[in-house]
Design a protein that fits this description.
The structure holds two protein chains of two kinds.
Chain A lengths: L15 H4 L5 H5 L2 H10 L2 E4 L5 E4 L2 H8 L5 E2 L28 H8 L5 H20 L6 E3 H6 L1 H11 L6 H12 L6 H24 L5 H7 L10 H32 L1 H9 L4 H11 L5 E5 L3 E3 L2 E3 L4 E4 L1 H4 L34 H18 L3 E3 L6 E2 L7 E3 L1 E4 L4
Parallel strand pairs in A: 2-8
Antiparallel strand pairs in A: 1-2, 3-5, 4-12, 5-8, 6-7, 9-12, 10-11
Helix pairs in contact in A: 6-8, 6-16, 8-12, 9-10, 9-12, 10-12, 12-16, 14-16
Chain B lengths: L4 E5 L9 H5 L4 E3 L5 E3 L10 H10 L5 E5 L1
Antiparallel strand pairs in B: 1-4, 2-3
The chains are: A alpha+beta, B alpha+beta.
The complex binds iron/sulfur cluster (SF4).
Chain lengths: 407, 69
């Protein structure tokens, strides 16, 4: 096993505009002022790090890139230190697919994630939240990430896939290896991908013997336009995607939302008094603390918002930074839980719109509703430290809370 | 003078974010992939005007038109 604790160090950033690094601890802790600085400098900035990488800083520039599949490819979607050869077209379809193969691959995944399908899953998610709350409500000092937010999405997606919810820790560990440690350590990434693929290959074999009515069997049974089943490697790739995309992201979104409410009593009290406002608040929390930053690879020379971009570079497609653009959102740096006009890009824009957005929204609403119902009084524990994940997904990984009025 | 409102979803732009359906369930329908189209001919019944504008201003793909006739 490689040493998971020692990712390659990057030199600290001294010039954010020309040498930005989204893995720098300063960015991880508090990226918002950095984005403001970059946006003030240019709609598109560049760093030599990560073998050359651009970052659009405005909503408009992010939208332009997200909608331009001619000059920007999705074959690489994480900005990393290395850029190995693409050896499989089934890495994680459809998120790693470009047109024309993207659309048919995505169409297959959409039906199980419609709002109606999510309504059917909602009772299970509500039960998961309540089981977790049962286990912590008697305590006065907890880590809400470790005890609550971390477990909700992983159990929900395991339930959908028909794999044991008790394997959750395994999944969480793989995802940490892929999305965080893997940015700087190829071996860790490959190890996690291999373990995950072997796990799912076993699940596929089991279902060949004994079909089930879960999402894995669904993928094995769907047919493309020609009536052919998906290759096993495509099923595997999509399963990897669902697990990778479905866990960290929503865990982060729920965590950031609770973090905000823990330090903003006025918003917390308003949501308790007006639970009908929760869906609107969820959209605003998604805007303000968007967890997911995607990437693209420049494959053809072009200009974005007047700035030239060159092939061979990656693009850090920061939906979170777009969502803080004051040109697009008045008071962009404030959380306005009843914001009416909110075209936020937290789930991406264009053809790669997150397949799981309806799932994530449902999980966030249910997780907040159940928590606020049963634990109306909570705040950050001044004796603890909130820590944030690094890289592709941003969310609190330690969330020390004090619960109850007495504290 | 009564003004008639109609909503219309551009199917080429819609990516199925489902914001319209969440905000104005009376005015939009989703297909099996979660992509939206206007309910019926898109006519906005009196009292639902606000919801029509709300859906339009929350569609991330700018796929919704509110037409004043
Ligand atoms: S909000 Fe816009 S993109 Fe989403 S389903 Fe409605 S019309 Fe389509």
């Amino acid at each position: 096993m490689s040493d998971l604790s020692q990712p390659a160090a990057h030199p600290p950033v001294t010039d954010w505009v020309h040498d930005f690094d989204h893995t720098d601890p300063q960015w991880t802790d508090d990226p918002f002022p950095i984005w403001d600085k970059l946006r003030a400098a240019s709609p598109v900035v560049h760093t030599e790090r990560f073998l050359g990488c651009y970052m659009p800083t405005t909503y408009e520039a992010v939208r332009e890139i997200a909608n331009d599949t001619e000059h920007f490819s999705s074959r690489r979607i994480i900005v990393r230190d290395v850029r190995p050869e693409i050896t499989s077209r089934n890495a994680a379809p459809p998120i790693t697919s470009d047109p024309p193969v993207h659309k048919p691959a995505k169409q297959l995944l959409l039906p199980p994630f419609t709002p109606d399908a999510m309504k059917k899953l909602e009772p299970r998610v509500r039960a998961i939240c309540n089981e977790l709350i049962d286990g912590l409500i008697a305590e006065s000092r907890i880590d809400a990430a470790e005890r609550y937010t971390k477990h909700i999405p992983v159990r929900a997606i395991a339930h959908m896939l028909g794999i044991p919810e008790t394997d959750s820790d395994l999944f969480i560990n793989w995802i940490h290896m892929i999305l965080e440690l893997g940015i700087k350590d190829e071996n860790v990434l490959l190890q996690a991908v291999q373990e995950m693929s072997a796990y799912f290959a076993g699940q596929i074999e089991e279902r060949k013997r004994k079909p089930t009515d879960d999402l894995i069997s669904y993928l094995m049974n769907v047919r493309d336009e020609e009536g052919n089943p998906l290759e096993d490697s495509h099923v595997l790739g999509s399963l990897r995607l669902l697990l990778i995309a479905g866990i960290d992201t929503t865990w982060s979104a729920i965590g950031s939302s609770l973090w905000h409410l823990a330090k903003t009593p006025a918003d917390r009290e308003r949501l308790i008094a007006e639970p009908g406002l929760i869906p609107t608040a969820v959209e605003e929390l998604l805007r303000a603390y968007s967890p997911v930053t995607m990437a693209r690879e420049v494959v053809k020379e072009t200009t974005i918002s007047g700035c030239p971009v060159k092939p061979g570079n990656m693009v850090l497609l920061s939906f979170p930074a777009a969502n803080r653009d004051p040109k697009m959102f008045p008071d962009a740096d404030k959380v306005v839980i009843d914001r009416r006009e909110n075209r936020h890009a937290a789930f991406g824009l264009g053809i790669h719109r997150c397949v799981g957005s309806n799932l994530a929204r449902m999980e966030m609403q249910v997780a907040l509703e159940e928590w606020l119902k049963r634990i109306p009084d909570f705040r950050l524990d001044p004796a603890g430290t909130v820590t944030w994940s690094q890289g592709t997904v941003r969310g609190p990984r330690q969330l020390p809370f004090l619960l109850g009025k007495a504290m | 003078m009564t003004e008639r409102l109609r909503v219309h979803v551009d199917p080429d732009k819609c990516q199925g974010h489902a914001r319209c359906k969440a905000l104005a369930p009376e005015l939009f329908e989703l297909d099996e992939y979660g992509n939206a189209h206007e309910a019926g001919d898109g006519t906005v019944r009196p009292g639902l005007e606000d919801k029509a504008w709300l859906a339009k201003s929350n569609c991330p793909e700018i796929a919704i038109d509110v037409i004043e006739e």
